[in-house]
């Protein structure tokens, strides 16, 4: 299953916010969309799933496994969401329904797409809770979002996105609201889940150090346009655009990565030599 985005343009209120974005995510690939706030990376992902906010329009082409999905009726897109393409949003507190149990929310897409009984959906919810390493899965599925920690809520949101075994996962800044220790655990979880299931991944972030933990290739956006595309190790070693250079300087120091560390060592050594 391949995602192909070609010449994507998004307009809001007469203003172009994404302009000419093109990229391909091959089956099993792990790609990042990275840029500063307002660069258009989240809007690009929302356009893929037909979830743009009211007043936004998209043109160009988005093909999933060769089928054009940009502009499909919402009913047809709903069949893709969760089944073929899963999405994890930035803030699980808003992604989860506060008045429904975790088990019901994880099992909901299973009931919709696979037409199973409530009992079977709950059984699957327990399985998915265990898969994302939630503690005491049989008990936690009966709890409500406010009874979980931030990291547990994000794990529940990941379980929801993966319950129907999609072939592509889109993760929109899934660790931004978490502290560094919990971030590392969520990144490790996502990496292992994607690799074990041989899923494709689109990971959205503003943090190059975070991206280096999960993606092998990246598209760098600035003000809705692509300014650089490269393998992540190349971006870490020799970023070509000023935007990527700034992202490298700002990379989270507490999330160590060997390429970032080597780049800093070489840079600092050069400065001392001068």
Automatic annotation (TrEMBL):
<dbReference type="InterPro" id="IPR003439">
    <property type="entry name" value="ABC_transporter-like_ATP-bd"/>
</dbReference>
<comment type="similarity">
    <text>Belongs to the ABC transporter superfamily.</text>
</comment>
<keyword id="KW-0547">Nucleotide-binding</keyword>
<keyword id="KW-0067">ATP-binding</keyword>
<protein>
    <submittedName>
        <fullName>ABC transporter ATP-binding protein</fullName>
    </submittedName>
</protein>
<dbReference type="Pfam" id="PF00005">
    <property type="entry name" value="ABC_tran"/>
</dbReference>
<dbReference type="InterPro" id="IPR003593">
    <property type="entry name" value="AAA+_ATPase"/>
</dbReference>
<dbReference type="InterPro" id="IPR027417">
    <property type="entry name" value="P-loop_NTPase"/>
</dbReference>
<dbReference type="InterPro" id="IPR017871">
    <property type="entry name" value="ABC_transporter-like_CS"/>
</dbReference>
<dbReference type="InterPro" id="IPR050388">
    <property type="entry name" value="ABC_Ni/Peptide_Import"/>
</dbReference>
<keyword id="KW-0813">Transport</keyword>
<keyword id="KW-0472">Membrane</keyword>
<keyword id="KW-1003">Cell membrane</keyword>
<dbReference type="GO" id="GO:0005524">
    <property type="term" value="F:ATP binding"/>
</dbReference>
<feature type="domain" description="ABC transporter">
    <location>
        <begin position="3"/>
        <end position="248"/>
    </location>
</feature>
């Amino acid at each position: 299953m391949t995602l192909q985005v070609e010449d994507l343009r998004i307009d809001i209120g007469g203003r172009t916010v994404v302009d000419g974005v093109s990229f391909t995510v091959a089956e099993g690939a792990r790609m990042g969309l990275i840029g500063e706030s307002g660069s258009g990376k989240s809007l690009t992902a929302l356009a893929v799933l037909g979830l743009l906010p009211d007043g936004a329009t998209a043109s160009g082409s988005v093909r999933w496994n060769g089928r054009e999905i940009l502009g499909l009726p919402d009913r047809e897109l709903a069949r893709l969401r969760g089944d073929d393409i899963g999405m994890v949003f930035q803030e699980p507190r808003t992604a989860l329904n506060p008045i429904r149990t975790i088990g019901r929310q994880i099992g909901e897409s299973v009931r919709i797409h696979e037409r199973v009984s409530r009992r079977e959906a709950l059984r699957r919810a327990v399985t998915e809770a265990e898969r994302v390493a939630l503690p005491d899965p049989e008990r936690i599925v009966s709890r409500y979002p406010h009874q979980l920690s931030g990291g547990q809520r994000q794990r529940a949101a990941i379980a929801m996105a993966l319950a129907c075994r999609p072939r592509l996962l889109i993760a929109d800044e899934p660790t931004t609201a978490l502290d560094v220790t919990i971030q590392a655990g969520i990144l490790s979880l996502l990496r292992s889940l994607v690799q074990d299931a041989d899923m494709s991944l689109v990971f959205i972030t503003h943090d190059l150090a975070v991206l280096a933990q999960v993606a092998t290739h990246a598209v760098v956006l600035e003000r809705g346009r692509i300014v650089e595309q490269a393998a992540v190790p190349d971006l870490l070693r020799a970023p070509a655009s000023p935007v990527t250079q700034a992202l490298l300087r700002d990379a989270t120091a507490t999330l160590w990565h060997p390429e970032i560390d080597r780049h800093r060592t070489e840079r600092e050594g050069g400065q001392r030599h001068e």
